[in-house]
From TrEMBL:
Pfam families the record matches: TPK_catalytic
Organism: Paracoccus solventivorans
Domain Thiamin pyrophosphokinase catalytic residue range list: 30-122
InterPro entries associated with the record: Thi_PPkinase, TPK, TPK_B1-bd_sf, TPK_catalytic, TPK_catalytic_sf
GO BP terms in the entry: thiamine diphosphate biosynthetic process; thiamine metabolic process
GO MF, one example: thiamine diphosphokinase activity
Origin: domain of life: Bacteria
Name of the protein in its database record: Thiamine diphosphokinase
Main enzyme class: transferase
Keywords attached to this entry: ATP-binding, Kinase, Nucleotide-binding, Transferase
Enzyme Commission number(s): 2.7.6.2
Length: 219
């Protein structure tokens, strides 16, 4: 699929859900290139950010956005088989994406977006959601976390694996959405290493967004 936005830097992807100034500040500090999904473009403009691209089905694109964003940056994608989040994420070529405005208030949207995270692994995407950052855990991941840091694993299918550096090791366990889940584990302090064999969402406190970016991008 031809990218609508190619960037050597991280991309902040803004959705139409609730987005705070703190969300935008934290995201754009790491990912200065900006793309918006449909009505997320209005939130971007309100914050003084001009999107490099806006994509979606445009069912809620305002006339203000049409008037202010250059026409060649507006990309109408009419098909209804995917969410606006997926329409955008699948058309970004960048080292990583930080997504804001995709976690509420509608929880059906959040669940659909978590499924998209596990299906589209490139570019790596980190979803800010309240006090958390959520990522689709790759098959192997290592990151440095202080002792006591909350580390939650939520399976979106059957998942087993190995861990190092967690208070409650996951070796020998099987996680499933309707069975055992791995919420509210904790780092022992130092390196946390995970090896997982299925689709799983890793949830960390959002203050560790930069640590998660480094772990996903190798630096």
């Amino acid at each position: 699929m031809t990218p609508l936005l190619s960037s050597a830097q991280g991309v902040t992807l803004i959705g139409g859900g609730a987005v705070s100034d703190a969300d935008l500040a934290q995201a754009t500090a790491l990912a200065p290139a900006v793309m918006a999904a449909d009505s997320g473009s209005e939130r971007a403009l309100a914050a003084g950010l001009m999107p490099l691209a806006v994509a979606g089905d445009f069912d809620s694109l305002s006339e203000l956005v049409r008037a202010r964003v250059p026409a060649d940056r507006l990309h109408h994608i009419a098909e209804q088989d995917t969410t606006d989040f997926e329409k955008c994420l699948s058309r970004i070529a960048a080292p990583f994406v930080v997504a804001v405005g995709f976690a509420g208030p509608r929880h059906d949207h959040l669940l659909a977006n978590l499924t998209t995270l596990t299906r589209l692994r490139r570019p790596p995407c980190l979803l800010l959601a309240g006090t958390d950052v959520m990522i689709a855990a790759p098959p192997r991941l290592a990151l440095e976390l202080p002792a006591g840091t909350r580390v939650s694993l939520y399976p979106l299918g059957r998942v087993s694996g190995e861990s190092r550096g967690l208070r409650w090791p996951i070796s020998g366990l099987v996680f499933e959405p309707a069975g055992r889940v791995g919420t509210s584990n904790a780092a022992l302090g130092g390196a946390v290493e995970l090896a997982l064999d299925g689709p799983c969402i890793l949830i960390l406190p959002r203050r560790h967004l930069a640590d998660a970016v480094a772990a996903l991008t190798g630096g």
